[in-house]
Description:
By secondary structure, this protein is mainly alpha-helical. Helix content is 70%, strand content 0%. It has helices spanning 2-29, 31-51, 61-81, 84-92, 94-107, 112-139, 164-182, 187-200, 204-221, 226-245, 248-259, 274-280, 282-296, 307-310, 332-363, 368-380, 393-406, 408-411. The radius of gyration is 22 Å and the shape is globular. The two termini are 35 Å apart.
Amino acid sequence: xxxxxxxxxxxxxxxxxxxxxxxxxxxxxxxxxxxxxxxxxxxxxxxxxxxxxxxxxxxxxxxxxxxxxxxxxxxxxxxxxxxxxxxxxxxxxxxxxxxxxxxxxxxxxxxxxxxxxxxxxxxxxxxxxxxxxxxxxxxxxxxxxxxxxxxxxxxxxxxxxxxxxxxxxxxxxxxxxxxxxxxxxxxxxxxxxxxxxxxxxxxxxxxxxxxxxxxxxxxxxxxxxxxxxxxxxxxxxxxxxxxxxxxxxxxxxxxxxxxxxxxxxxxxxxxxxxxxxxxxxxxxxxxxxxxxxxxxxxxxxxxxxxxxxxxxxxxxxxxxxxxxxxxxxxxxxxxxxxxxxxxxxxxxxxxxxxxxxxxxxxxxxxxxxxxxxxxxxxxxxxxxxxxxxxxxxxxxxxxxxxxxxxxxxxxxxxxx
Length: 416
């Protein structure tokens, strides 16, 4: 009987280990598969907790604070959003909170094979995506035949959804940490190749965030003399310029589309006008609308998933010939402020800063994975630079995966 119980326990753990490894792949397939994977991870995780009679996460103060945020989302959806979409999204958001602690459970397991196996296979999946992106750049189709329908953008395994830049941004630092710890002889080669690929993808916002993480990684985490750090950091803009200006498509994407505006006019610092910016830049028009929504609804916002409705209203778009309407504001701060108000914003941002501070305090130069996830969280908070919707399955899964790595620091246990 005891042997049978051990076999069942091993099977449950192995199934969840496989599902956690599979999670990044599910992001390539679509939201349905990703959500199904998350639900299965949660189910097997809760079974594990029940068998061990140890629902440890319920006692965690950080998890309790996350539940406060979750309850506020439900309140906001019921009494502010008041739509089925808003209520469904808020109710379902709990899956990400439990997912974070499910992954944390296996990363923090006494048996190091779980954490080592997870990071190893996540790194190999990232490496496969990188090879695929190089293939697509040269042959205009990825290895499965997917092709981007957007000039100077790569699609890879995400196909028409063009989300590979978000995936790359979310997993690049964890992969770099793995190669730094396990493959030091070829680390700098991977470090350079991954950076070049982030340029080739053609997503400006995610590329800028990766640049930020790279530079911080070099100066704060990389174990090199300061002079060598400056040399390595200097190489980043040089490589960027060489790669971009040696490709007409990339030059158009990274230079012309940023500095050129309609009718071949250029944005001049001495002639800067807000109405001009929001008319010619779709992201600024979304930001402008989100700010106006927040001004009208500062305390509670308009409710989750309501931006896609409210942003098209004329009162939020007072500048002639512009419309800031969209599914979301394309910027994390503006999205949370406009949909959840200042209360929701302070709750979420305070929790993010809390785990980041603990991550740096307890793991500075001791744990590269925790530090890498901390860099991801900080980059997520960079203002103005566009981002995906904080609450959608794809972006939220990547965010909470990194969150799960970061909260290991709250337990002050080392991962190698």
